[in-house]
Amino acid sequence: MSGETPPLAGMAAFVTGGGSGIGLACAQWLVRDGCAVTIAGRTESKLAGALEALRASAPPGVVARAVACDVADEDAVRTAVSAAGEATGGLNIAVLSAGTGTFGPLLTTDLGAWRATLDTNLTGAFLGIKHAGAAIAAAGGGAIVAISSIAGPLTHRFMSAYCVSKAGLETLVRNAADELGIANVRVNAVQPGLVPTDLASALVNDDGIRADYLDQMPLGRLGTVDDIAAGVRYLAGPESSWVTGQCLAIDGGHTLRRGPNLEPAARLIFGDDVVEGRIPR
User: Fold this and answer.
1) Domains of the chain by range and CATH?
2) Are 152 and 191 in contact (CB under 8 A)?
3) Contacts of 247 (CB under 8 A, 6+ apart)
4) In the chain, helix, strand, coil percent, each to 5?
5) Which one of the listed residues 14, 103, 158, 162 is annotated catalytic?
6) Is 234 annotated in the active site?
7) Mean of pLDDT over the chain
8) What pLDDT is recorded for position 280?
């Protein structure tokens, strides 16, 4: 009803990967409920457009800002977290949404691509939890929500680096929740299924892969960024004050079945010999 205080009024949030997709949707859900939000990302031009959309979602007087930040750079994360708390005098919420991925057979995966995936998805989340967790603890407590994937619990052939990074992220979340509970900092994750975003465009746009994903979903439809943001909003807010260390699947039921069959696409791109492990030495 009009005149009611928004449920997150007076709070401040830091959202990585906030320039598009799931990260931006999460930021919009938070700011609509009165939370001051700082989005972070590596591409300033993308952040500028996202900030315009975020400010359009914000109620009057609610602050929305953007800061350039590479989540694998500790100094940049430390600076961005500090800036995010300035709007209200302390940080209460962090959403760790920055992510990347690679596609290809494990036996031909480039070491640099492997490291880049883990640097963003796992080390980036570690740095976010390290610095945002300290800031949230100093403010009296709050919540951290990391964006994992159904690739954490389900194998995705030819996406090994991504799967490992998300499985590691979920273990990190559980350990952080166990350690930080004493400081009243809750740490949880969500596991999105297939959602049309820039990162997932190759999967969504391939008719065969998309159909196979849908075959594994009891609810039979792709997700939306708002499906994911609604779960993040719950885990970030006071409604989930007795929930920590959990990984919530938001996937149309996909994790009840199997991971996607990516073999036809891998054979087309890399060839039968590579897919079948016949690698010239």
Assistant:
1) 12-275 (3.40.50.720)
2) yes
3) 148, 152, 153, 170, 173, 174, 188, 189, 190, 191
4) 50, 15, 40
5) 162
6) no
7) 97
8) 80
